[in-house]
Structure formats: C-alpha cells, structure tokens
Amino acid sequence: MKFGVSLFTSDRGIGPASASRGAEAHGFDSFYVPEHTHIPVARVAPHPRTGDASLPDDRYMRTLDPWVALASASAVTERIELGTSVALPVEHDPIALAKTIASLDHLSGGRVILGVGYGWNLDELSDHNVPPSRRRTMLREYLEAMRALWTQDEAFYEGEFVSFGPSWAWPKPMRVPPVIVGAAGTEKNFRWIAKSADGWMSTPLEPKIDDRIEALQRMWREAGREGAPRILVLDGRPDVDKLMRWRDLGVTEVVYGLPDRSEQDVLAYLGRLAEKLDGLRESTAAG
Question: Quick one: which of 151, 213, 154 has its CA closest to 185?
C-alpha cells in the first residue's frame, strides 16, 4: 500500500515544486493537486461539503492550473508520481488536453496519474458549455478520445462531443496515465468506473468505505475487467488498525492533505507525517 499527499494549490503558501520535492524526500509515493478554472460568483450548485452555495475554503477561487503546477513539480523530482485530485477534462479541448498530459508524462518519465471528476460545480461547467445532464457521457468520450491519441499512430475518434479524423499526435506518454475517478462511492459511479476507468478515489465525506470497496471490486469482476481496480483513499489521520484493514481490503494508496501554510510549516508537517507513517508501515508489514 502506497502513501501520497495532496496540496490544494493556490497563489499563496507553499508552491507545488517545493511541496512535491519535500514529499519525495520524505519517501511519499505520489503528489496530487486539484483543478477549478474559475468559480462563478453567482451559483446554484451546492458544494458537497457545505450543502449550499458557500465554499469551505477560499482556495477554490485561487487554484493554480494543475498541469502547470505538476510540470513545476516534475522539474524538481525524479520518482514521485504526479496526479490530479481531481482534474475536470470536460472543461478543456480534449485534443489539446491530451497533448498537455502526454507531454507531462513524457517529460516526467511516465509518472502521471489522471484523477478525474464529473464536476460538482454545475455553474462552472455551464460556463464551459458542458450540459450538466450529459457530463458523464462527455467525460467518457473525452477519455476515449485521449486514449486514442495516446496509443494510436493514426488516431481517430467519432462521438457525440468529440470527433476527429485520422491524425498524428506525438509525444505518446511513456505509459497511458491510469484514470482514477474521484466521486461518491455509489453503485452508479462504480459501474461507470468499471466500464471506463482504472480506479476510484474516495471523497473526504466518506469515512466508512469498507463495504464500498467490496462493492467496487464485485462490479469490476462483473464487468469482466482483469486484475483489480486502483483504490485511493483520502484519509484524515493515520491509524494502524484502519490502514491494516484497508490494506487487506485492497486499498492501493492512502492520500493525506497538506495544510495551507508557509513552506517552512508544510515541510515540517511532511516530516512529522512521514515519521508517523514509517512506524505504521512497519506495523502493517508485521501484521
């Protein structure tokens, strides 16, 4: 079981380059950043955590571009995987986005993880001309089209939202980035993941996920998928019994959020978290 960290990037506090370099130095396996292109001031869509139009954190309106942020992280790291928690592909042109992600994967040595979401902020999606009732279909087509560009010498795709004829597009990623869907652990979402993605990222609102992990694994098998889905859990506080249980259930990675503080404070926090996890690694291995 791997351990990663997620930085809610903004134009204040520690930057993604320093945070990812510190995370790699302390032995973490992955580094994640979020995405919001903008936040409309007048909104109808409720935030999942607050239940209304209010935001739990003003960083939602200050987020850095995830691919620029991860490119800066790539330049100062060598080993740590670089991912999004989560990106919103439907807010972009899929051909251009495929080029951006492939370029980052190529330059980073095959370290990109594509965490994606359907998008809770329907007002934000609307500004990108995304029909709310069709955003799942749109996301599926975007992913299929990008995979075609990443894997085919003469790529083509024909869909409702994406269409292009035989085309050349290099660089190809060193590996096709695994697609992890960050969403509530519902049957509808799990069936979508089993058909169109490589794994699931839990939300901070789901502290009890044991039954949901088993449900995803069952639907994965029913869909005829080989192997097992990647399962990334967003955790709050490390606990050896909980981590051992998750390990046994098939959780592949546990991710911890970094605080919105100065570089000095965040690097100190990384050191304390790494020290605690080192002890838990020994305990889970012994268990």
Answer: 213
Q: Which two tokens stand for residue 151?
A: 């894997």
Tokens describing residue 253: 């990675």
Q: Looking at residue 279, what is its pLDDT?
A: 75
pLDDT in tens, 168-183: 999 999 999 999 999 9
What CA dihedral angle connects 195, 177, 60 and 255, to 10 degrees? 90
Contact 212, 185 (CB under 8 A): yes
Single-letter amino acid, residue 230: R
Structure tokens at 82: 């670089």
What span, in angstroms and rounded, lies between the C-alpha atoms of 115 and 180? 5
164 vs 202: CA distance, rounded Å: 34
CB 263 within 8 A of CB 21: no
**Residue in the structure block whose two tokens are 């800066």:** 72
Instruction: Taking the CA atoms of 213, 218, 223 and 228 in sequence, report the sign of the dihedral they define.
Output: positive
Q: What is the pLDDT of residues 261-271, one digit of tens each?
A: 999 999 999 99
| Cα–Cα dist 259/104, whole Å | 26
Q: Is the pTM of this model over 0.85?
A: yes
DSSP string for 164-216: EEEE---PPPSSPPPEEEES---HHHHHHHHHH-SEEE--TT-S--HHHHHHH
In whole angstroms, give the CA distance from residue 169 to residue 166: 10
| Phi, psi for 73 (deg, rounded to 5) | -70, -40
For 194-248, write each residue's pLDDT tens digit: 999 999 999 987 868 999 999 999 999 999 999 999 999 999 989 999 999 999 9
Phi, psi of 165 (to 5 degrees): -80, 180
